[in-house]
Every structure is written in structure tokens, then in C-alpha cells.
Amino acid sequence: MAETGSEVSDDQGLALLGIYLNDHLAGATGGAELFRRAAGAHRGTELGDTLARLATEIAEDRQALLDMMAALDIPVRQYKLYAAWVVEKVARLKLNGRLLQRSPLSDLVELEGMRLGVEGKAAGWRTLALAASRYDGIDSDRLEELIARAGRQAETLEEARLLAAKEVVGATTS
After folding, report:
1. Domain 12-169 adopts which CATH fold?
2. Is the pLDDT of residue 96 over 70?
3. Domain edges within the chain
4. What is the pLDDT of residue 11?
5. Is the pLDDT at 172 greater than 80, yes or no?
6. pLDDT at residue 134 tops 70
């Protein structure tokens, strides 16, 4: 793969990393809200238990990101967090074929969104791992743990997504 040829100084790189990490923090904020809400919607079921466990992990991952940002002296951009919170609330208004209750399509779309969010988070951790050699304050060992956990989260969500997809399309499990 060709290099871009646009090397940046340490200061520029840290500024760009700050923007990048704040964007990921905004995504983590919206994602944490989605996981909590979905877990609540399925309280008392196997899926609810799984989503509650994942919601706890997602909150821990968000805190790990905040810790790394603090170690790098990157300020949190509150307006991005607020915007992510609002977007997650607005996303609840999507049409799902039913006016006053959840539909099986709601589960499928939410699980797909959660899976995409976890994949994006893993990409962010891998980007931070690349930056670890350049910037003090990035814990490479912790990042490896977070990358592995994101992989497990994605697998769990894919299993749940497939079950929801089968319900939506009327497929039988074999």
C-alpha cells in the first residue's frame, strides 16, 4: 500500500489524534446508551443478560478511552458527547413498522448497529496501538486486551444478530 507522503509533526499528530479520539468517545457515548437501552428492553431474557454484560463492558471500554485521553492530555470535547447523546435518542424514533412497541426489526437493526460500533471501536484501538510508539501515555498491553475483548463482543453480537435475523425473515433454526 502506498504511503500518503504527508508526515505530521508530533504536535500536529497529537492534535489530530485528539480529534479522532473525541470522535470515538462520542461514538462510545451513543453506543453505551444504546447497549443500556437494549439490555433494558430484553430484561429477564438470555439476550437481556448478554446485552447487560456487554453494556457493562462497553462502559468500561469508554472509561479506558477517557483514561488514555487523560494520559495524553487530550481534552474531552463536551459538545461532541452531547451531540452523540442526542443522536442516539433521535435514532429511537426510526420507523420499525409498529407505532407503540418494538418489533423484531428493532432488535435486528439495533444489533447490527451495536456490532458496527464494536467494529469501529476495535479499529480505534488498533489505531491507538500504532500511535503507542510515538506518544507516551498509551498502554500497549491494555490496548491488546481491549482489541481482544472487542473481538469477543463482535462475535457475541453476531450470534445474537443472526438469531434476530432468522426471526425477521421467518427462517427456522437447524
Report:
1. Ferritin (1.20.1260)
2. no
3. 12-169
4. 77
5. no
6. yes
